[in-house]
Specification:
Blueprint (H helix, E strand, L loop, with lengths): L1 E6 L4 H13 L4 E6 L2 H9 L4 E4 L1 H10 L2 E5 L7 H4 L3 H9 L3 E5 L16 H19 L1
Parallel strand pairs: 1-2, 1-4, 2-3, 4-5
């Protein structure tokens, strides 16, 4: 199953998510796309099989993925301090992939009903949901 992880800024969330998915699903095919080279490099360190950087990489890989995971901002134009372009957000939103979005209450986007939970807890929830999706698909 093709999993695409998208992250920006320092890529810490993407790195932790990639690492936990690699541990939970060692056979998974994980592609990481960073909105900048630092985020990309950190997700590679987390165990992604391959990685790319930038708008076109998001657009191309969103078409191919079965599951897209990352912070909520990847579907909001100008999120992550402006790193998510309108084309990136549209590509993720229009993708046929199942999206597993981690609700980070930052960048002027607040998610009602979501309390301030530690990033580790949010990542564990995301990993659990992705594992369940893949088990359902088998």
């Amino acid at each position: 199953m093709d999993i695409l992880i998208i992250d920006g800024q320092g890529g810490n969330l993407g790195k932790l998510l990639t690492k936990r998915l690699r541990e939970a699903l060692p056979q998974a095919d994980i592609t990481a796309v960073g909105t900048n080279s630092t985020a990309t490099e950190n997700m590679l360190k987390g165990g992604a099989d391959r990685a790319a950087t930038g708008e076109n990489a998001v657009i191309v890989n969103a078409r191919r993925a079965k599951i897209i995971a990352g912070p909520l901002g990847i579907v909001i134009a100008d999120a992550l301090l402006g790193e998510v372009t309108p084309a990136m957000a549209m590509a993720v939103g229009r993708s046929d992939a199942v999206r597993v979005l981690i609700p980070m209450n930052r960048c002027d986007t607040l998610v009602a009903g979501v309390g301030e939970r530690p990033m580790g807890e949010l990542i564990e929830d995301a990993v659990g949901r992705i594992v369940a999706l893949l088990q359902k698909a088998d």
